[in-house]
UniProtKB/TrEMBL annotation:
<protein>
    <submittedName>
        <fullName>Reactive intermediate/imine deaminase</fullName>
    </submittedName>
</protein>
<dbReference type="InterPro" id="IPR006056">
    <property type="entry name" value="RidA"/>
</dbReference>
<comment type="similarity">
    <text>Belongs to the RutC family.</text>
</comment>
<dbReference type="InterPro" id="IPR006175">
    <property type="entry name" value="YjgF/YER057c/UK114"/>
</dbReference>
<dbReference type="GO" id="GO:0019239">
    <property type="term" value="F:deaminase activity"/>
</dbReference>
<dbReference type="InterPro" id="IPR035959">
    <property type="entry name" value="RutC-like_sf"/>
</dbReference>
<dbReference type="Pfam" id="PF01042">
    <property type="entry name" value="Ribonuc_L-PSP"/>
</dbReference>
<dbReference type="GO" id="GO:0005829">
    <property type="term" value="C:cytosol"/>
</dbReference>
């Protein structure tokens, strides 16, 4: 996969660990369903802690990326869903632990609720 980071001074600078846009050329695009902070074997939320749920959701997403034959550097686009947008900075910090630069494109959406009472969900588009 060839990944080109798109950046222009004519649009606002990224407000976190993401790129304005990512252009990719490759032979396979994988659309990952949303992942919340469920422990894979029990199917229960890993923790009541927001940080714990974010880390587990990213770990679950990473496992699906690996199963698809990719790595986190192959992630072109993320969509994040938070029940509390006040925790946006916490997500940015945790995301930087998982993703190397250059960062994927990203959208963040505030939502009223998520399945199983989760506080965070992530979905991804991967190009292999």
């Amino acid at each position: 996969m060839s990944k080109q980071i798109i950046h222009t001074q004519d649009a606002p600078k990224a407000v976190g660990p993401y790129s304005q846009a990512v252009a990719v050329s490759g032979s396979k695009t994988v659309y990952l369903s949303g992942q919340i902070g469920l422990e894979p074997h029990s199917g229960e939320l890993v923790s009541e802690s927001f940080e714990g749920q974010v880390r587990q959701a990213f770990a679950n997403m990473h496992a699906v990326v690996l199963a698809a034959g990719g790595t986190l550097t192959d992630v072109a686009k993320l969509t994040l869903f938070l029940t509390d947008l006040g925790k946006f900075g916490t997500v940015n910090a945790i995301m930087e632990e998982f993703f190397p630069q250059p960062f994927p494109a990203r959208s963040t959406v505030g939502v009223a609720s998520l399945p199983k009472g989760a506080q965070f969900e992530v979905e991804a588009v991967v190009v292999l």
